[in-house]
TrEMBL record, chains A, B, C, D, E, F, G, H, I, J:
GO terms for biological process: beta-ketoadipate pathway. Belongs to the muconolactone Delta-isomerase family. Pfam families: MIase (PF02426). This is muconolactone Delta-isomerase. Keywords: Aromatic hydrocarbons catabolism, Isomerase. Residues 1-89 form the Muconolactone isomerase domain. GO terms for molecular function: muconolactone delta-isomerase activity. Pathway: Aromatic compound metabolism; beta-ketoadipate pathway; 5-oxo-4,5-dihydro-2-furylacetate from catechol: step 3/3. InterPro entries: Dimeric_a/b-barrel, MLI_dom, Muconolactone_d_Isoase. SUPFAM superfamilies: Dimeric alpha+beta barrel. Its EC number is 5.3.3.4.
């Protein structure tokens, strides 16, 4: 099932550059594992902002919540989750992913 | 280039069922042509609402504006456009479309 | 899976008392069928408003969207859907329904 | 009587991991006592957020206020309380709890 | 128990002066009966607006909802209900009403 | 003249428990003096929140502003003031206070 | 006493040009009488909008409410009232009006 | 030309009482010079808030911006500027200031 | 002096296609005259919306208000006006226009 | 292509005057280079605020995002990006820049 997840990242002043770089690397590795597993289908950067538009494809709410709360940057995020369904205008192949 | 386009449709009371069905069919055909041309990459229905999350992939703002204002349902829509860039965590293939 | 669905009903002036009574009866029958099927777990009236807080328990987003858009009063509603997961503080039996 | 209580938790940076874990354990024990007493009927986690949707069943506003302000995490919460009544579409058994 | 009820009245253009005067008279009689019964403790007009701040004193949410939805002007209102408890700074007599 | 005053209290982390208790005691004494003088007619706690709904009865804006800015907790408050007039539906005695 | 009153005028489509012109003339005459009486101290047009910023100087809330609800355009307005007091930085003469 | 300037002052915890008193004195002197020059026509305190409604009368945007950014309390303010024009209902003398 | 003017156009259902086309032509002619006079410096279409971002360059608020309220589409617009000053980072030539 | 970029700068208390002056100088130099390259077409200061309205003219979202995130003051900004297209009423020369 598809979920749009909009993540708004707010870096507190107290977090050092080193720590923040460390967190961001961990975040990237964590995200890319999910992408390779086919759970994290799309991610785009919102131009001019430290936020993104992500599309997740998982089986249950619980699975998504578990994925999100274990994001290394989760403590520094405001997250908005929107459940998505296939659109009647969408071509079938738009919802079929290889894996 | 990628744009998120969120379309919120508000059907006025004065539009008959027939007219609305006609408009929706025209909208689907128009959208699917764009999808086959590779300009309209993704569309999902927001669960419980008459709105969608769409991802367009076009070369210029002008092209997107032209596409949107010619949507048969455009006069009945509130539209929010968000320019998107590739995200550093995204896998390269996530931004490469066959056509 | 659980979803909170908040429904805000706005009756247009043009809808007659008879038509509205008809719609509300159809809505109640439709809802109670879903309740007996175990898909519509909870519904409460928000005091002082023509809106409700509902908890649905269905397997997919698509199933929920289909249920909602076929509500007789759907054309007269603003709907907000919030996906819910089990809470770590919740007692197990709170999420186990007989049917 | 039923109340929806939406709790939005904001952990300040200054609270250590140990202190926060301690608070969360106290919160769980406190909540589960109320659940066993039949005052705290339902709690769901909002997917992707550190907030919940709770349904309380108590006799007076004062009782609810007392319960809420004694939540161990109360100082770190924004709380929204919505009084709920039985809905005309609801099946009688939906409002009848064993204890 | 005390509830603040803020009522915002919106008169549609289609309602004639006669009908509106009739509704307002019915509203006043209905309200004053409740006031004499001790259920409708306070009402103030918000200066410059067609809205009021009311304090109701009833035993249950259901009773309040029933009272509100039977207000003659209810179909033309947006209503916000806020449950109130006695304040620790309040003098005891502020919460004791003769009847 | 009547004013609704909604006070939203935000305790900064830096204020110690002792200091806060001191401030709250001073606030209660200050408020109760005003209540006995008949200037502070009503106060209710908003259930689940650290905010209140108060009704003041003073002769001028200046007098109210002076009262409010000298509240011991004023520096920690967001305050919303709404001027109120007698409502045409209100019974005369609802606006007549013994002193 | 001073009140800022912000008036936002919304002309319904159903009101004819003649009727609207009539209402506006009545509004101007009504307003200018109040100005000559010293109750309506200031009025400015918000540039680009059909709204104004007005400063009234009357003795009671009730007097202001009566003035406002009898504005010929009142049924077509959203009105926001803000009670104002003399500012400690203001020069005394700024609050002294000849009549 | 007239501008409404609404200033919302937020005193950070870190600013000592002495420093704040110093800033407020400087602010008053600075404001009163502008008042005597006829650039700062009106200022009222919003009752119950640390904000004001001011009317400036200057020749250009640049002049106003320069005045505002040099307010001693400017770093601690949120400022909203609304350009104002003479209102057709206003009496001519309402816009004519001695100096 | 520079003003940003954001115009949001809302076409009522009751306005015929012919009438709307007429209004839009009149609007374009009116706007282009102002552009040639150097009062209307910039206009861009907001992608996906029936709104624009315009930059006007006129001498007084009154002049701008007069220009705006005489726009043929003014009755169908929500308008937001923001006064702008030269920015310290801007190159001088950015504010110098040939005529 | 044109983008409106609205930048809202929030200087944290912890940043010293020296550091802030350094950042602002770097910001100006960075901006003026972009202006001379023809990528940063317009910038105006919003009167009374530490925010600006900027018009960028670049070829892709990615280029804009790269420009913005490398602004020296970017970590202290809230940024809103609005894609703009040529307006049908605009004179051709309004969109033609020498370089």
């Amino acid at each position: 099932m598809f979920y749009m997840v909009q993540m708004f990242v707010n870096r507190p002043e107290s977090v050092s550059d080193e720590k923040w770089a460390e967190l961001r690397t961990a975040e990237m590795n964590y995200a890319q594992d999910l992408m390779r597993e086919g759970k994290f289908r799309h991610v785009w950067r919102v131009v001019g902002d430290v936020s993104n538009v992500s599309i997740f494809d998982v089986d249950t709410h619980a699975e998504l919540h578990d994925i999100l709360q274990n994001l290394p940057l989760f403590p520094y995020m405001d997250v908005k989750v929107t459940p998505l369904a296939e659109h009647p205008s969408g071509l079938p192949e738009m919802y079929a992913y290889a894996s």
